[in-house]
Amino acid sequence: MRRQGLVCHLGLQRHLFTVGRDWCRKFIRVNMASATRRIVCSFRQHKLFYLKSRLQYNAVALPFNLAGPYGYVEQIHPLATRFFHASKTFYGEKVPFKLSDIGEGITEVTVKEWYVKEGDKVAQFDPICEVQSDKASVTITSRYDGLISKLHYAVDEMAKVGTPLVDIEVSGSVSEAPVEELQEKDAIPLGEREESLELELPAEKVLTTPSVRKMASDLKINLRNVQGTGRDGRILKEDMLRHIESLSSSKSTPKPSQVPQQQAKAVERETTSQQPSPSTKTPQIIRPSVPVGVDRSEPIKGFKKAMAKSMTASLRIPHFGYCDEIDMTSMAALRHSLKENPMVKERGIKLSFMPFFIKAASMALHHFPVLNSSVDEACENITYKASHNIGFAMDTSLGLIVPNVKNVQSLSVMDVAIELARLQELGNKGSLGATDLTGGTFTLSNIGSIGGTYAKPVIMSPEVAIGAIGRVQVLPRFNSKGEVVRASIMQVSWSADHRVIDGASMARFSNLWKAYLENPSTMILDLK
Amino acid sequence: MNIFRNSYLLLRYHQVKITRLGNMNSYYPVSIIATRSIADDVSKKLVFISKSNNIFENLALEDWFYKNFDFENQSLLFMWVNTPCVVIGRHQNPWLEVNLKNLSQNSVLLSRRNSGGGTVYHDQGNLNCSFFTSRARYNRKYNLETICGSIRSHWNLDLTISPREDILLNSYKVSGTASKLGHRNAYHHCTLLVDVDPSLLHQMLNVHELGIQSNSTPSVRSPTLNLKACCPEISVDEVIHILGCYYIKNSPLCFQGFDFVTPSEENFPGLNLIKQSFSTWQWIYGKTPSFSLCCPIGDQSSEIKIQVLNGKIERLHFQDVTIGKQDALRLNTLLVNQKLDSELHGVISNSSVFGTMGEDRFSKLNEILLTLCLTSV
């Protein structure tokens, strides 16, 4: 007598079926909360019930050993056979939980202790194991709820970072693996405000078919006002027609006469009751059918999402702009001469203008510390930051990122150049760390390297000022003698937070920065 | 910026004498540019100094902070000093690392901490610093630079950081480091040898070779030096003060002052439970990773292999036929599944089993077992 039983998950109702002479009452609850389709089947002792089932549910069979006095499968009602299959228990998807990066460039760790074993149930954030890597003992916690199906390493084995550590059978659908928290934190956290701001997205995000769009544009109906009943809120043709009907019923005036032929019949069908028989015939306009391109929508992820988040935060800062022009002739000559200098050559660093801009900004910030400050969200406290962490905008294939050079006040121009080179290399590879991306106190954006003169840069919260540097152009200018000379002119546009910075401070700071760059020997005077 | 710093240098409890503050206005050397700014983001920096000298209380408090504090917007420097004790790492073997006999003779406590790393000896001349941050802000190098910077600026001692993240003075080790990372919080703690008794240190950590084979974390031994040897006017209290000031240096508006904390149940509910769990045999000896050792029998030709799991003798492998079945059975009943503790020590010393089996043959085994059972708990 085989003591095996089959249990069928058929929904919340108790569907009973024959399993032979002996019955048992076994009420099994499997994941009641997560899936409405699963669960519960019980079969009562000494009673026969016919199976009534809902065909749309998937039958998930759970073979279990009905030991003891419980029944055995002998005969299943013919109706039921369609819905059973004696497959192995499955909870859900088997997801390999990879060993995430521990940091500090560690590639291998030793598994020291397991807190779970195969077959154990785990919840999210339950500790799974303890790994050790040269003095750091790390507790690895689970990312998912589910059942541990396989442990890939034994105690004292070396586990490689990035390889699967355990396999977890996840109950229900796997939620999107939470993006490394560090990255999300870099984008200025908005929290609850996100939802309300997202409503300001442009209209093409509404899901519809091209024909419905055409209808809407012809009838001058805003798609946002139409209630969609299709999948994911899609607006179907029926919805459009219903909307039109509701519009025409609310208005007493008849529809405008410019109705294209394709939709004319549909409209007439719906509105014949309201519309009076037209005395004037509407001219039938024949529009040739033009193939319409398909709209493409994709979720905003990664750098774009970070940029969107930080920009919406920046929007709440009252900006004011201040622009100026800088004569870069002496600076260009200095740079040219330094390029030939053996001291620069042997260090092997490409000396562009940017290290000079950054260092000059830092020197000017010494005199105007208010520009290197940070304001909290409610604008109640201002923190004057001690270190000048000057960020510079970098355009990579992934998007706009703003790494910063730390403590420029204690770096020389050469050090800044070295640091810039390092950050640029990392940025091109896409491997900038959180250290480099956070903690900035002031930003310079060299949009001029791509092009442009004047700009209106957006301040990166929680900073209070930003500068955009334009292109260096050779233009005619008057010198002190009144002669027309060629000068390398560069425009700079500053934006500052008007809640804490006034125009005069910004202007004076800009003048000082300009003075340093127009006459580089003055930088030596303020060298520290 | 300097005015803010000076005006906020208040101490809530004036129990630490304020001596010259040294050159606090020096700029930082270039080597730490990459590591300084993470903790600058933190809006709140706390400094706690423990009033207790009991290793178990301090370890329990450290664990309490790790499990119960939220370090999202704050970070904490917790400093503590203990009476003489030895602390082994989470996955270490006390029999391999510590001389248990000397330990009991000098009434030095033995404890196991929660973080990895090697074995250290603490006494009143040793300062322990635990840097608590959120997981994202964990940065060992920054913490070590804080310590080096503070001591360097005040006492002009040339401290450097080795590649293994130990602090070195003239290539002698003055500090050991270990850390624990969890899902939300992380801490990094290190010792600082200010004025430790070197003879006791060597006595405690000087182990006779027992031939233990294990996968536990080995300690990397290095020659050590006290800071006091190079700078006679240094003391633990002064280091506490200077380090604390240096730590909160960059948050002038958020300086809370130093807090002296007493690890007690009223202040930290749940602390007693943690303290008790740290003082049990189960934690100190029972958490040892499995190990084995071979013991020669008689004339060195045959061996008994003792396998220990979780601090208990799991089984005995008799790698020789000369040991009779009776003897083997007697040894098994006496030893297998027994915890290696003082109870077993008493049992073995009082038992006549070895006598009946032939003392000469099993003298080495007897000796080894007695050494293994010299546990303090």
From TrEMBL, chain A:
Stretches assigned to the Lipoyl-binding domain: 94-169
Q: Which InterPro entries match?
A: 2-oxoA_DH_lipoyl-BS (IPR003016), 2-oxoacid_DH_actylTfrase (IPR001078), 2-oxoacid_DH_E2_comp (IPR050743), Biotin_lipoyl (IPR000089), CAT-like_dom_sf (IPR023213), E3-bd_dom_sf (IPR036625), PSBD (IPR004167), Single_hybrid_motif (IPR011053)
Keyword Mitochondrion listed: yes
Give me the reactions it catalyses: N(6)-[(R)-dihydrolipoyl]-L-lysyl-[protein] + 2-methylpropanoyl-CoA = N(6)-[(R)-S(8)-2-methylpropanoyldihydrolipoyl]-L-lysyl-[protein] + CoA
EC number(s) from the headed UniProt entry: 2.3.1.-
In residue numbers, the region (Disordered) covers 247-291
**Cleavable signal peptide:** none
What is its cofactor?
(R)-lipoate
Residue ranges with Low complexity bias: 247-263, 272-284
Coiled coil regions in record: none
Mind telling me which GO cellular component terms the entry cites? cytosol; mitochondrial matrix
Q: Mind listing the UniProt keywords for this protein, alphabetically? A: Acetylation, Acyltransferase, Lipoyl, Mitochondrion, Phosphoprotein, Transferase, Transit peptide
Cell location: Mitochondrion matrix
A molecular-function term among this protein's GO annotations = lipoic acid binding
User: What PANTHER family does the entry give?
Assistant: DIHYDROLIPOAMIDE ACETYLTRANSFERASE COMPONENT OF PYRUVATE DEHYDROGENASE COMPLEX, LIPOAMIDE ACYLTRANSFERASE COMPONENT OF BRANCHED-CHAIN ALPHA-KETO ACID DEHYDROGENASE COMPLEX, MITOCHONDRIAL
What name does this protein carry? Dihydrolipoamide acetyltransferase component of pyruvate dehydrogenase complex
Q: Which organism is it from?
A: Daphnia magna
Automatic annotation (TrEMBL), chain B:
Report any Pfam family annotated for this entry.
Answer: LplA-B_cat
Please state every residue range assigned to the domain named BPL/LPL catalytic: 71-255
Q: Which domain of life is it from?
A: Eukaryota
Pathway per its UniProt entry is: Protein modification; protein lipoylation via exogenous pathway; protein N(6)-(lipoyl)lysine from lipoate: step 2/2
Q: Name the Gene3D superfamilies for this protein.
A: Bira Bifunctional Protein, Domain 2 (3.30.930.10), CO dehydrogenase flavoprotein, C-terminal domain (3.30.390.50)
Q: Which InterPro entries match?
A: aa-tRNA-synth_II/BPL/LPL (IPR045864), BPL_LPL_catalytic (IPR004143), LipoylTrfase_LipoateP_Ligase (IPR004562)
Q: What family is it from? A: Belongs to the LplA family.
- In Swiss-Prot or TrEMBL terms, this protein is called BPL/LPL catalytic domain-containing protein
Species annotation: Daphnia magna
